[in-house]
Amino acid sequence: MNQAAIEDELNKCLLTDEEMNRHAASLPIGTYPDPLFPFLVACEGSQSVFMIARQGQNQHIRIFPGSSLYLENLALTVKDEDDEDRIRAVKVWLDKSDSVKQGILLATLRPGSYEQHCMALALLPCDEGGGEEVTNRRIRIELIPSKGAKKSPDEWMMACEVHVMGKVEPLPYAERTDDDDDEHTEDGDDCEMGNCPM
Questions:
Q1: Chain-centre distance for alpha carbon 151
Q2: Could you give the CA distance from residue 36 to residue 118 in angstroms, rounded to a whole number?
Q3: Domains with residue ranges and CATH for the chain
Q4: Cβ(161)–Cβ(92) under 8 Å?
Q5: Percentage of the chain with pLDDT > 70?
Q6: In principle, which of 31, 60, 105, 126 could form an S-S bond with 40, CB 3.0–4.6 Å?
Q7: What distance lies between CA 190 and its chain's CA centroid?
Q8: Against a cut of 0.85, is the pTM above it?
């Protein structure tokens, strides 16, 4: 092992004093890219949500019982003007888990023409068992380069980012009967991806 080369690479990861002063406050999840660590956003209670997703850096969401996540806006930001011509489109996917290769396409964003997408998508803590367990979801970015555009995976990761905005709200609980429980269990398939009748 080349100790000097390893130390040099690790030192490049450190923030400078200027960066430390600039980022003293709490930062949105995903501010700094890390493809090795699956960022997890815990959704419970009442709060605003702001995440940053990149190519190769998935955002993991965990929705706890009693809370719902509402996705409201996606916004594409391209870091370098030159990259606007190198990026044909950016697809934003909502997957059930890491084991699912392709889930629901939320939006296709295009630099310079369609950089924002508004929505009203509710994700509920619901499964076939009636919503007693947490629900895990994944937001995944698929970058489609223009023909002939070439970059390394790390360069594509840093070329653009998608800002994901929404809010977490507590679910309004109502007194339920045994008939409601039976109906909810029978309609468990409707609970996929936030279509739960709860």
A1: 23
A2: 30
A3: 37-194 (2.60.120.340)
A4: no
A5: 76
A6: 60
A7: 22
A8: no
CA 166 – CA 28 distance, rounded (Å): 13
- For residue 11, give every residue at least 6 positions away whose Cβ sits within 8 Å of its Cβ, in sequence order, or none: none
Rg (C-alpha) for the chain, rounded Å, is: 20
What does the block give as tokens for 25? 């406050």
Question: How many angstroms separate the CA atoms of 159 and 54, rounded?
Answer: 9
Structure tokens belonging to residue 178: 């045994």
List the structure tokens of 153.
């995976």
> 150: which 2 tokens?
């070439």
Cβ–Cβ < 8 Å for 130, 12:
no
pLDDT band at residue 145 under the 50/70/90 scheme: very high
Cα gap 9→95, rounded to integer Å:
33
